[in-house]
Amino acid sequence: MIRRLLAVIVTLGVILGAGWLTLRRGDIPFEQLESVYANADSRYLAFGDDMRVHFRDVGPRDGKVIVLVHGFSASLHTWEDWVDNLKRDYRVITLDLPGHGLSRCMDNNEIGPAQFVETINRVVNTLEIEHFTLAGNSMGGAAAWNYALAHPDRLEGLVLIDAAGWPRTEVEGDSRPLVFRLLEIGLARRVMQDLDLSTLIKGGLEDSFGDPSFVTDEMVERYATLARAPCHREALLALTSSRDERRVATPEQLASITTPTLVMHGELDNLIPAEHGRQFAAAIPGADLKLYPGVGHLPHEEIADLSASDLRAFLTTRVHGVQDVALEDTGATN
User: Fold this and answer.
1) What's the rounded mean pLDDT across residues 127-136?
2) 20 to 30 Å CA-CA from 203: which of 182, 213, 225, 238?
């Protein structure tokens, strides 16, 4: 508690020293953001007059379907390397969750796993997709396992990549990047809401990779800019303020998942301990586990080729092929 208070005091001191007005940043209209971050594959699903979900749908129309769901404060851009790899053989759908990327907000008072499950379901229903493999990273991983519990008949495969939702124990400590810890403190949230957080975002991203050199100025700019979409900062703050109210994973719940499951986790993840990946794999019957030495919170970006290869092996052997063939040994630990 004392460390958290000191972090808040230091942050407030930096803000006051730099000047409040200098750091303040306004919203950026969606039209302006779309001119930069949408592309020819971008599509939008309308939920009424004001709500639109941004998604992309690429690859062969008759291919097996994979849906990819990003984590907290990220966007569908996090999957670009995987999409480039997979779209040759699979129909790949990526989407921006409400309050993220180029998607509008739904009810920020209700933002969380249930809303995300509903969003995923609306997208696949609109595209008339009956069965698919669902993969999610971090917060998107929590959405994925919640979807598996809510709609077990829809999934052919489940992939949890450094997934959120396993409760943190007291002995594990808190090694998460400073920006995430600050956002859980009410005073810091109120101070930070309208400010330019590029420096904190850069630090948080660097802590999310085993190799911080993966973080580029373009990546930091994308995270910081998309967070300034109308209502997005309120959505992100609502997510951090409701952390203690979220549904947490339990072995009893996860034991009911019968979908073939692959758990991927970077061993140097500073946000979600690798032990949580082990717990997910142990709790879900028959789950495969891939642990990546030297890798952080985003294996699909940091080791895109290796993690995509492991995904392909899982899809071939466990989801669409022979059930009892072991995953190919690609250098990760099982």
Assistant:
1) 98
2) 238
